[in-house]
Design goal:
Structural class: alpha/beta
CATH topology of the largest domain: Rossmann fold
Distance between the termini: 83 Å
CATH superfamily of the largest domain: P-loop containing nucleotide triphosphate hydrolases
Order of helices and strands: HHHEHEEHEHEEEHEHEEHHEEE
Radius of gyration: 24 Å
Oligomer: single chain
CATH class of the largest domain: Alpha Beta
Strand order of the largest sheet: 2-3-1-4-7-8
Mean pLDDT: 87
Number of domains: 3
Low-confidence stretches: 65-71
Number of helices: 10
Number of strands: 13
Length: 328
């Protein structure tokens, strides 16, 4: 069967032949694989390109593994929480980060567009949550520094493409994480007694739910899952359920917003203190300044479950939206 290659293939092939640097050859090969039609006539050609790609990436990994482990990438924490987006190639992680934040990660139809972690700040009501776009995870290649980025995150967003075998994408990504001793917090009971494991909340994001057909695929995907995975379906291109995703992420972070006020003045509702659920007035005081803990006498609180201005002590457990007036 003839290959019947499209015209754009030959332009990419020319760039591949002219490429000098291994990274340029990798990018050209990925583009060639993206434009080549999938049928029996191209099976051998695609297999040859995949072998070349695997060899080039292995060479790059061998040369750079030591230096990358030494240097690595560390994203400074900003905002109310840090969330890492992970997944297979072309699931739409970069498009999702672009739609949710002020970042502008590179988006393309070929694999491994994202080479380095790209942070962006996602606004949610009056706080910001940090999202990190990461390179794709595959059986053939994973950046050596990527597991450390994932371990440091508060929540993992595991993104799948709902139009292209999302069950396999989910299972393979979870298996690759497990090889790096990273597992979903919801399965903590399976890892009791094991040392050196990192357990993190995982939210599955079924992306590219752009139309009715994709919604049907999502329903099938949901039905096929044997475990009860926390999940939300979205579309980075149409904006479908992005606001719902923000709300769920806020809840998964298990944080609260607390406001402070001076005596006789109104609180600043635009600048909350962000604390973990279960935090007390003492935790709030220590976050403001250690002297506030030492000089603390009592506090007054306005919020749910109390009457306005109720006097409380340092062990009072705060709720989301509480307004606190500290007395020293």
């Amino acid at each position: 069967m003839p290959a019947n290659l499209p015209p754009e293939y030959f332009e990419v092939e020319r760039r591949y032949r002219e490429a000098k640097a291994p990274a340029e050859k990798v990018k050209a090969l990925e583009e060639m694989l993206a434009v080549i039609p999938k049928h029996k006539g191209t099976d051998k050609l695609r297999a040859d390109f995949r072998r070349r790609l695997s060899k080039l990436k292995s060479q790059q990994q061998t040369k750079k593994a030591t230096s990358r482990r030494d240097i690595g990438y560390r994203i400074d924490r900003e905002g109310a929480g840090q969330v890492a987006l992970i997944g297979a190639p072309n699931v739409g992680k970069s498009a999702l980060v672009g739609a949710l934040t002020n970042a502008a990660p590179e988006v393309a139809d070929f694999h491994h567009t994202t080479r380095i972690p790209t942070p962006g700040m996602m606004p949610f009501e009056n706080i910001q949550i940090q999202l990190i776009d990461t390179p794709p995870i595959t059986r053939e290649y994973m950046e050596p520094w990527l597991p450390d980025i994932i371990r440091r995150a508060d929540v993992i967003l595991l993104v799948v493409d709902v139009t292209t075998d999302p069950v396999q994408q989910l299972e393979e990504t979870v298996a690759l994480l497990e090889e790096k001793r990273i597992a979903p917090l919801r399965l903590a009971h399976l890892y009791e007694g094991r040392q050196g494991w990192t357990l993190r909340p995982v939210l599955v994001v079924a992306n590219k739910n752009d139309n009715v057909r994709a919604e049907e695929n999502f329903q099938i995907f949901n039905d096929l899952l044997e475990d009860d995975w926390p999940m939300v379906t979205v579309s980075a291109s149409t904006g479908h359920n992005l606001e719902l995703l923000k709300q769920i992420l806020f809840e998964r972070l298990e944080i609260i917003r607390v406001y402070t006020k001076a005596r006789g003045k109104a609180p600043d509702r635009n600048a909350p203190f962000v604390l973990k659920k279960g935090a007390t007035v003492q935790d709030l005081a220590s976050k403001i300044h250690k002297e506030f803990v030492e000089k603390f006498k009592f506090a007054k609180v306005w919020g749910n479950g109390v009457y306005d201005g109720q006097m409380i002590q340092r062990d009072y457990m705060l709720q989301d939206g509480d307004v606190v007036e500290l007395h020293l």
